[in-house]
Amino acid sequence: VRVRARSYAEWESEVSVGDVPAELYVELDRGVHCHGVVRRPDGSPAAGVHVSAAVSGVREVATTTSKPDGSFELMGLPEGRLDLVAEAGARGRRAEEVVARLGEDLTWNVVLPEVATLRGRVATRDGRPVAGMHVRVETEVPSSPYGARGKTDSNGAFVFDGVTSPRLTIIVEHAPMGLPVTVGRSIAPTAEDVVLWVDAVAVPSAVI
Known about the structure:
The protein is mainly beta. Helices cover 0% and strands 48% of the residues. Strands 3, 6, 9 and 10 form a four-stranded mixed β-sheet that branches. Strand 7 (80-87) and strand 8 form a beta hairpin. The N and C termini lie far apart (60 Å).
């Protein structure tokens, strides 16, 4: 049996049901109230950001969307360790683990990270574009988590939006999680194209 009520912590328990009619009495505890404002890096309010709370990353217990003034409110959260997440798609993501107590009024103000667009291409050393290569991007900065996957187009180009890390490793592969054909390290997302050179002998002729 699971009982939910606005502003109260969720109650859940297994109940044995026999042949004799019985009544169940449930006393709900005042839940955790989480509220705050989501802002862009320049300080302006960020509307339409998905804000959620989960119990230790296992089960999402509440979700909402930030209002035009960036404010949000999550009510009736359970006590204990909670994972709070503000997800804004290409505008970035913030997450934090908190420990909350029943009845607590918790303030979580969020500033979305700076984001950039990573543009690049894969080419052989004689300048021919390499299409259909798998590209994997990973952060080199633990405090700025980011990861993405994609493929080069017919011009050997790739684009990743919403990059939140200032320093990246770019891995080019024939297949996802395969052996790297080439690796670029300590790459900063900039407006200029990043070129990853590969040896022609390492690239099947079918993808050149």
